[in-house]
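Meet my pick.
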Amino acid sequence: MSTTSLPTPDHAAELRSAMLAAGFTADGLLDLLGAPAYAALARSETVPALRATRGGGDSPLATLVRLFLLQQPVPYVHAASAMPVEAALADGWLRREGDEVHATVDVRPYGGPDGEDWFIVSDLGCAVGGAGGIGSREEGVVLGVGGASTTLAGITVRTPVGSALDVGTGSGIQALHATRHATRVTATDVNPRALGFTRLTLALSGAPEAELLTGSLFEPVGGATYDLIVSNPPFVISPGARLTYRDGGMGGDDLCRSLVQEAGARLNPGGYAQFLGNWQHVEGEDWHDRLRSWVPRGCDAWIVQRDVQDVTQYAELWLRDAGDHRDDPEAYAQRYEDWLDEFEARRTKSVGFGWITLRRTDAAEPSIVVEEWPHTVEQPLGEAVLAHFARQDYLREHDDAALLEARFVLVEEVVQEQVGSPGAEDPEHVVLRQNRGMRRATKVDTVGAGFAGVCDGSLSAGRILDAIAQLMQEDPVVLRDRTPEAIRLLVEQGFLEPVASPGR
């Protein structure tokens, strides 16, 4: 594990003020670097940014970018014009060599959801992964901002809560987000160094302090319960546990399974638990059933598989993440063999990646939805997650007869597409497509398209179907019998919203 000492947050407020004054923010970076160089940083490619900062001369912003983002030494006099350099040296943010200073940690500007100027602090060269690897293979290395962490932040429910728990906090990104809407935030990690980085991230971002506890999964919090639990865990399915930040140290997908199964007892009534995870696709086993078996008793669940990789793609991805492709070819080949041996022993043919959301419920029959949706979505999705569970509640409380008595409206920004051969009198099929949130698309028949098109909340579903039956010269009783299933699907997927009955 890395033994490099971390800075102290004693003068974090002064350092933050200097960074903001210099424009060392997400917007300031974009202005200085330009979009291509800014985007390249997210891929761990620094050459475009190095070129862009040459034009910035010795401006405070260019100095801070080269120092904390690009890990380049800068003259002491330039650093002194950009920040309280003696305080930064005393606290350990910088080290001096002759007339130059070097950063000891990576500091990355990060824009909060409401325009907050935050900073994520992590190990040098480890802001993100990228095709070139993380730049360090020390066991206890702590990463900063990456695609997985921003994905989890985007899908998390952001209602005000009394307590929030970030399991496996890393550099503290999820805990930082939670401080906006939780009265009390607790962050845990098996790596004490990660908790040190979380403390720095919160302090430099001007956020409230969090309770920081060392230990694995839920062990550090004892019997405490929470309104919100989030985790971007070390979910990589690998032979052994070489890297604390990514390898769970349990066999197969057991770490993700344990995290999900143990979360139910840690949630307050109505509370949410939201995770990213990997899971095995095992020969002779339905992956949907595998994940359903993880859901703890007393919880609704929504599990979305976003991607699937065969075992060779998966092994290559994470070997490159660790920079193993830069090693001796024979050592790389042996590690590759070890990964494939592990998958073969577990009869794993591929690995899925996605999101898992639990909600504590007292419903007699919890709702468990497991689906695959690899298509583009619109982040943030926290409101979409809330809406999903509200729809599950509605459908659970309304049988088919109640659905026919209810009134619905077509959700805004849903469009209809007709698919068929050019010149054909009738389309082969009709597709309803959302332009917001999950951006779902679903096929509907003529009745479904006609029904959705006239749902404006003024008529009950049953009356609309009666009118459609008359137009199509169908038996209205038969149409009422066969259509509730389609209505239920359109409501479940968010194409139709129920309208509250008068007086409710």
User: Anything to note?
Assistant: Residues 329-345 form the longest helix (17 residues). DSSP finds 20 helices and 19 strands in the chain.
